[in-house]
TrEMBL record, chains A, B:
SUPFAM superfamilies: GntR ligand-binding domain-like (SSF48008), Winged helix' DNA-binding domain (SSF46785). The lineage of its organism: Bacteria, Pseudomonadati, Pseudomonadota, Alphaproteobacteria, Sphingomonadales. Keywords: DNA-binding, Transcription, Transcription regulation. The keyword Transcription regulation applies. This is GntR family transcriptional regulator. SMART domains: FCD, HTH_GNTR. GO terms for molecular function: DNA binding; DNA-binding transcription factor activity. It comes from Novosphingobium barchaimii LL02. It comes from the Bacteria.
Length: 237, 237
DNA sequence: CTATGCGCGATCGTATACCACCTGATGGAT
DNA sequence: ATCCATCAGGTGGTATACGATCGCGCATAG
């Protein structure tokens, strides 16, 4: 039970329940990018009718987790290498905004939580655990934001890129465990220190560094990761 | 007719048709922020059942145009002053990315279109016309992008802020028609010149200036515009 | 052997009817 | 005057049915 920064409450509403379950499966990698999602099948499995399933799919489309094509079904969102690259460029530019909005209002307890997660992360060896902790770490720094709009955009990007980050981590774990892993930890430490001291601009710089280096790392390895990039300029019907 | 980066055609699909109509009403201001949307009513009016209407509402929720609360109905998205401010800060940071991605690939015809729209805009006095031309102008500069993800985010922000921009323009038209209006035109000219010369960084700078100044202008007048801002830090169930 | 077109099945989209539940408002009791 | 209970409107969900559309395999032509 990780403290997922997303997870909406509302248990009684079937569509929300379906959406949560589906989102979990996508974010956990159980449903990989490109996987087809059949409405009947899912409705049957979750003991509900197709309407909540359809509603859930629309909700997930809103979050960028699935893509729906009329009469052709829903599939888990796929990103091209370029999309992934762009996602990081966007993060680099807007997450500092979210951070600056939150940091001044973080409490002592928030900082304690942050430190705890950071330290647990430094000892983590399991990919799933590391991903969850990484996510939690950053979202604690964003915890006291007052800009849901911005947070939603950021979260959406985290969600849509999650599967690809996982693929990378699994790949990287084999041969860079000590090198890249350590750098990652150092960056977290830098970010934590700046956040704890409420040095907003330093924290922003640390965050940008962190995101940019991760992007570069990911780009370096993206050759082996799948994806038939369509180098098309805009779309035309 | 703005160059919508997605806008699926598909006329046969009722839900898409409903979504398009609803989006039009919201963007035109016919349905102002906060307006309630009743499913039965809309279904009846458009001679369809509630299912396509629900689907359409979910689609519009995905675009950030409406907000759906379980059992409490759908309403046109409302932004607080803070949301509006943040929207502009986001635009300031990510639209230059989109611009840089597109400008190098703009054709001579694109530039001709751009110039045409700019000149028509300089003579426009009608608020609706000016808004449409403003939108078209910028989207022509983005026309040759290859990053639908980024374009989608940008378009979403344009959509959700449209009603508020309209309110401002209507307000400003009365007493700043010559002052602010001229500045606006000059900025467009600066952007156009840089784009035409394919000076990407200059164009980006001009764009940032344009967005930032618009934001400042809007903030200055936002006092009179509605909105009961909830100064709450994050949400808590 | 490859390419083109056809047709059928699997799914999706939509319609209808009905019940269950939530929300907001109305009105009465303290 | 404030608070709580009740009630209608409206949405969420279920069940069922049927037309429309897309993918894919198969037959046929080159």
């Amino acid at each position: 039970m990780t403290t997922d920064p997303y997870s909406s409450s509302l248990q009684g509403v079937a569509s929300q329940r379906v959406a949560d379950i589906l989102a979990g499966r996508i974010l956990s990698g159980e449903l990989p990018p490109g996987a087809r999602i059949k409405q009947d099948e899912l409705a049957d499995e979750l003991a509900t009718s197709r309407i909540p399933v359809r509603d859930a799919l629309r909700m997930l489309e809103a979050r960028g987790l699935v893509v729906i094509r009329a009469n052709a079904g829903a599939r888990v969102m796929t990103l091209t290498r370029r999309d992934l690259e762009v996602s990081y460029e966007i993060r680099e530019r807007i997450e500092p905004l979210l951070l600056a909005d939150s940091v001044p209002h973080l409490t002592g307890e928030d900082l304690a939580d942050l430190r705890k997660v950071m330290e647990r992360n430094q000892g983590a060896t399991d990919v799933e655990e590391a991903m969850a902790l990484e996510r939690e770490f950053h979202w604690i720094t964003y915890r006291r934001h007052s800009t849901p709009l911005l947070a939603q955009i950021v979260e959406r990007i985290w969600d849509t890129t999650q599967s690809y980050r996982r693929d990378y981590r699994k790949l990287a774990m084999g041969h860079t465990m000590t090198g890249a892993g350590r750098t990652h930890d150092v960056e977290h430490q830098l970010l934590y220190d700046a956040v704890a001291k409420k040095e907003v601009e330093t924290a922003q710089a640390a965050l940008v560094l962190h995101i940019r280096r991760t992007r570069a790392e990911l780009a370096r390895h993206s050759g082996v990761l799948a994806n038939p990039g369509s180098g098309a300029r805009n779309e035309a019907g």
